[in-house]
Design goal:
286 residues, alpha/beta, UDP-N-acetylmuramoyl-L-alanine:D-glutamate ligase, two-stranded antiparallel sheet, disordered C terminus, kinase, PM/HMP-P_kinase-1, Ribokinase-like, pyridoxal kinase, EC 2.7.1.35
Length: 286
């Protein structure tokens, strides 16, 4: 691939993200949920669209294109030929709509780790579905489970996705810890389980688990209010905020800073949703 491309071994910038996610014309999901918040937090973000739709797939009808692996690789070749593939500190991936595109993401990750060095952080949001329903073709589940999960630095599945990837039914905090242990055993250093429903009532939970060594891990739980309304793009925003928080709180070679998780921007996440709900209703009444 691009034999004459510059071979840098370090990222050009400490906060430069390549974000590979969906794009919609209307609404805020995928890159439209992740890019702007990361920019506000001081990151340079280059966006690649995995699909381009008129709106998210929860609408009764949507149109657009699902991009394939060749479309992604054409962009990667251009970046690499110009020496730009060596400039990233992070790879962030979200919704992917085809198996060929996902396999090209794996090739992309390996290329970036070759060009940028082994410290490149891969934050993988394995967008598969929610509440028992798949959003993507079923064959992507096996590819994530067997090929993508072992390559991730950080994995951010929701409860349904976690169950698909591990085979562990998550009905309690103990189940969530067991599921994280299964993902750690696959090679993932840091797992964040989002939107856990076992808490019940008017609360949901987010559980962060860090592998300390082959035998030990530590977990922290953040409970959040369950807000009325239906929201999309929340998982995409969560993964972006977690990426930013981890950059601000590096753990390598230091005492773990995971306890700061509860005071992070993720703890203020409900305010984003509450403001969205309020704004929508003000617009409806105006």
């Amino acid at each position: 691939l691009a034999p004459d491309a510059p071979r840098r071994t370090r990222p050009m910038a400490a906060k430069h993200v390549l974000s590979v996610q969906s794009h919609v014309v209307h609404g805020y999901v995928g890159n439209k949920s992740a890019v702007f918040p990361l920019q506000l937090l001081g990151f340079e973000v280059d966006a690649v669209n995995s699909v381009q739709f008129c709106c998210h797939t929860g609408y009764p009808k949507f149109g657009g294109q699902v991009l394939d692996g060749d479309a992604l690789w054409s962009l990667v070749e251009g970046l690499d030929a110009n020496g730009l593939a060596a400039g990233y500190s992070h790879l962030l991936t979200g919704y992917i709509g085809s198996a060929t595109f996902l396999r090209s993401v794996i090739r992309l990750l390996r290329l970036l780790r070759e060009r940028c060095g082994p410290d490149l952080v891969y934050v993988c949001d394995p967008v598969l579905g929610d509440h028992g329903k798949l959003y993507v073709p079923e064959d992507l589940v096996d590819i994530y489970r067997a090929e993508v999960v072992p390559l991730a630095t950080v994995l951010t599945p929701n409860q349904f996705e976690c169950e698909l990837l591990t085979g562990v039914a998550v009905n309690s905090e103990a189940d969530a810890v067991r599921a994280c242990a299964a993902l750690h055993a696959r090679g993932v250093p840091l797992v964040c389980l989002t939107s856990l429903d076992y808490v019940g009532g008017d609360r949901i939970a987010m559980l962060l688990s860090e592998r300390l060594d082959d035998a030990r891990s530590e977990q922290y739980v953040l409970e959040l209010p369950r807000l009325r309304g239906r929201y999309t793009g929340t998982g995409d925003l969560t993964a972006a905020l977690l990426l930013a928080w981890l950059k601000a709180h590096p753990r390598a070679g230091k005492e773990s800073e995971i306890p700061n998780f509860k005071g992070s921007s993720l703890g203020r996440f409900p305010l984003v949703l509450a403001n969205s709900w309020t704004s929508d209703h003000l617009l409806e009444r105006s």
